[in-house]
Amino acid sequence: DVKVTQSSRYLVKRTGEKVFLECVQDMDHENMFWYRQDPGLGLRLIYFSYDVKMKEKGDIPEGYSVSREKKERFSLILESASTNQTSMYLCASSAQQGAGGNTIYFGEGSWLTVV
Amino acid sequence: LAKTTQPISMDSYEGQEVNITCSHNNIATNDYITWYQQFPSQGPRFIIQGYKTKVTNEVASLFIPADRKSSTLSLPRVSLSDTAVYYCLASKRGGGNKLTFGTGTQLKVEL
Predict the structure, then answer these.
(1) Between chains, do B99 and A109 touch, taking CB under 8 Å as contact?
(2) Which residues does residue B62 pair with via DSSP β-bridges, in sequence order?
(3) Hey, which bits of chain A come out as E strands?
(4) Cβ neighbours of residue A77 under 8 Å, at least 6 residues apart?
(5) Residues of B in contact with A97 (CB under 8 A)
(6) What is the pLDDT of residues A20-47, one digit of tens each?
(7) Backbone region of residue A98 per phi and psi (left: phi > 0; alpha: psi in -120 to 50; beta: other values)
(8) Which of A25, A42, A43, B17 is the most exposed place for a label (fewest CB within 10 A)?
């Protein structure tokens, strides 16, 4: 089975701190994603990457950056955390499928509280 | 990529069939439709995927009419454990996709 592992399940950080959310997938997937989920707003795409060192902005990239130095690892960085970034963050990955649509595999989520 | 629209919520009772419709007016000819299920405090998980007409697996069916402007997820004989949020996603064949989800449908199943 595909496994997407998010390093921290629950975090509490102070306003202004630099925060790293780490994600590792074990299926050699080319594509990796970071989403944010808030009540009533569904899943919102922050950034995605389709190859090592490649990144593309999603719908809400402001206040975030990402890093993909290795194929299996995709990090989300909050340069200076703010209270409005309190949320659940979901990492996901998918293969570069030529014959079918993308099936996305999600991690269990990281609950970040910024105080 | 096509933007998808779903009902915000639906209610049902155990044993009933539930149909959740997703509208995607500008879906491209090579776009796939995929449905995901999410329980509280968990990441979404894959349910079913289709390209056209009908697809069935052990948990659901997916109907995509000829005009492909909408699709319907059908859950036969739901149970309390089917209470979850359901998302549909339109994506192109191949990779490098900006995969954007909609707000999802909250399905509540009662006794």
Answers:
(1) no
(2) B55, B73
(3) 4-6, 10-13, 19-21, 23-25, 31-38, 42-49, 56-57, 65-70, 73-78, 87-94, 105-106, 110-114
(4) A18, A19, A20, A21, A64, A65, A66, A67
(5) 93-95
(6) 999 999 989 889 999 999 988 888 999 9
(7) alpha
(8) B17
